[in-house]
Amino acid sequence: MCTGTVSPHYVLKALQAGADGVFVGGCRLGECHYQSGNVMANKRMTFLKKLLEFSGIHPERLRTRWVSSAEAVEFVHEVSEFVENIKKLGPNPLKVKAKEAV
Question: Domain spans of the chain?
């Protein structure tokens, strides 16, 4: 599936459901199998990070990376680094607020 099909709605829904972070990975910019899907996704995710920050959600809870399918080692590195950053940020504040409301 192309990252061009990833709607900001999916990311927001995941965070609202309590996900601590969302990783969106796709083809290198300029190398999209569907011409410009990743460029469009990049624009959407860049805007969404600003919206998250404005809403009080740390923008690093959303990470986008553009890695070739032939670069497995780099992909693993990016995901591992993301997981470590999420651990440092702690639980998603939306998840914490939901537990407090119960």
Answer: 3-101
| pLDDT in single tens digits along all 102 residues of the chain | 788 899 999 999 999 999 999 999 999 888 888 888 999 999 999 999 999 999 999 999 999 999 987 899 999 999 999 999 999 999 999 886 656 665
pTM assigned to the model: 0.87
8 Å CB contact between 66 and 33: no
Beta-ladder partners of 26: 66
Alpha carbon distance 22, 8 (integer Å): 11
